[in-house]
Amino acid sequence: MILDISLGLESERSTALPFVWLAIVFLLALPQTVSLKELTLYRLAHYEALGSLYGSPTTLIDMELATVNSTTNLARKCLIAPLEILGINLFTELVERNIGAMVVMIPDELSKLGIHARDRWLELETQLLTPDVPIPVYFAPSEQHQWRQVYEGVKANELIHASPFSFGYLRFVSTQYNHALRTVSTQGVQSPALLKNVTLLNLQGSLGGENKNPTITLSANIDTFCSSPLQCYGYRACGGVASLLAIASLFSRLYADEQSRPDYNILFLLTLGGGSNLNFISLKKAIESPEKLKTSYLHVHSKFSISLDDLGGERLYAHFVKTPNEGTFGASFVNRLEANMKIGVVSEDREVSVVTRKVNKLSFDNQAWPHEQFYLSRVVGTTLSSNSEADSPLSHSVLDREGGYSEDYLYENTQAIAETLAQIIFNSKQDNITYLKGTHSIDRSYLKAIHKFIYKYPRPIQALGSHNVLIKTLKDWLSAASTEFDFAKIEINTREDGSYEFYDELQLITEVSKVKPPIFDLMLFLVVLLYLGVIGGCMYWVREWVNKRKRKEKYN
Amino acid sequence: MTFFYFVSSGAVTFAPCLFLWRLTPLADSPFLYRFLTVGAIYIITQFSKFLLIATFFPEYDILTHNFVFIQEFFKCTMYIVELIGMEIALLYFSHKFDYRVLTVGSSWATCQAIASKLLPLWFGGRSYEFSWDVIVLALRSNVELVLMLSTVYLIFIIINSKRYANQSLYSISLLFLITYYPLLISYIGIIKSVSQLMLLIAEFLFSTSVAAGTYLLYSRSLIKV
Question: Cβ distance A307 to A373 under 8 Å?
């Protein structure tokens, strides 16, 4: 009755009707909701490689947040969890509990992460980088401390175990909130678009450049690969690039003087897209079809290739296809390198181990190390790495950050490699002569600065290109350190190289809002009805009372 | 917040005004014309108020959260313009019909609710996030409705001071209180940073006591309003 009247539906008095219509028009035009907290989320790597789809095609979600401690039904909820508690067992269990999505919070200081937590996560991350990940996974950046607040908020609101009919639950419902998470596309699209202009690049600089002289090639790969592309800072992974540039800078000074110029050419090769995740496409192109580059003739005389991987370990592993025989270039390189590493001041019992792995020439995507690409083009080579096995999980992880990694080892190893190179190209017969001393040695601060600079940029192949600041700077540095410099963009030939397609929307805007459970809506509505009923009743009573008084007056 | 909360808080804000027109003796009279007339006076009053503020206090900053006594005092004083507007509305309707206090009071309060509450409720309703502020805002408009009815009756007494000679001093002092109580409220709100809910309770207590005082005046005068 009261409602009817208040809505102006009473037939004889319809003067309020225009207002009701106006109100209805306004309500229908109620625009989309907006929220208060806008945060950033990164998506799991989403790409197609060799016919399989990696990552989740779902980008936009609108779900309630929950933590692993939640006792309620997790179905179609978005789980938020710090990286340190996640592991493959928990993940499988959560997927069985039907969670809708997962937000992984990357911790502030990765060095404080326990070894068990780290290994657990690395195992899960390897799993996340396989084709069949059942749910969308997102990464919350560590810089945004609000994520921690959100997590604490979600956790605090899950503590209640009261029955839905008790007073405690009532109080809980009126004072606590659920958290809802909604991701919004930055470009206003429903599903992520294919990235059209992913550039693969080779930067090539050389010293010497005499046609008749043999060439030693040094190569390193710039881009990194991990589960969250825009957070692939790759601290270990960029050690190779840094030491290559430091060596180039040192040797350019040695080659500048005509008298000290040795009878060797050195070729420096920086590849973008020459990693194992892309099946070494750039490297392969640089070796197999170098026509485009000015320095390409050097490959013809290539005598030995050294690929630099992560160089920050106490031990170095020299990876070969076959164990180098005594007297060969490879064997003498390893021996000299080991001898030079022992000169270093950090530790005396450091050594180089030779690891061999046979190459399957027929298999298309089964190559693990860059030197295998050189081998396929009949260039003997080695890969220097502090990992004994290819694709160690840590080098393809979001955990590859600063901390837990000694700068000293990188410097010592770079110095040892440079010294070995110097001994070889200056044709030293004696083992104990040190060529690179004083100002003619690797500049420690320069190496550190380059390393820090490269580390500042996340380097997934999707985000780099020839116009990227980092790539431009690397170009400048390498061209300054070499007598001849050239670079070439690489096109992927889908037939030979396999198809690689990358998807956009790596970064999403996320709205986190505090919302009330549906039971609260109902309660609020009932309370409002009661309140209005009381007010309306009072007014009705006043009216009756006034009418009664009027009638009395009339009789009087 | 969702659409649902928008409807709930909108109902709390506007339903009492609607009830006033529908469930009180006002229901027996055509109200739309009167409401629009009062609305026009309300708009003109607000314009003149803003003009005055803009003229005398060009640097007045609405967004500052500091308590500046002069500013707040001036803002409260400007309420006198609104009182004059209500008086004009009362005079406009004088001797035309009964219940003009109720008509002017409810219309003025409705206009104020539309002008000052509709947009915040609208944006609160658009927001995805739940917040008690919107519901507090809706309840505040009810408190203001009570206060407005008392204010209009007090002005009515002053206009007809010949008839209520012994009451006009009381009513002037009550109007003075009504004019300057926001000073206290904003002082508590800003300096002591009291929550919105406590402020609402304070306003409610103030309004009910003013309404009780007004009712005492009303019950002493046996003349029909």
Answer: no
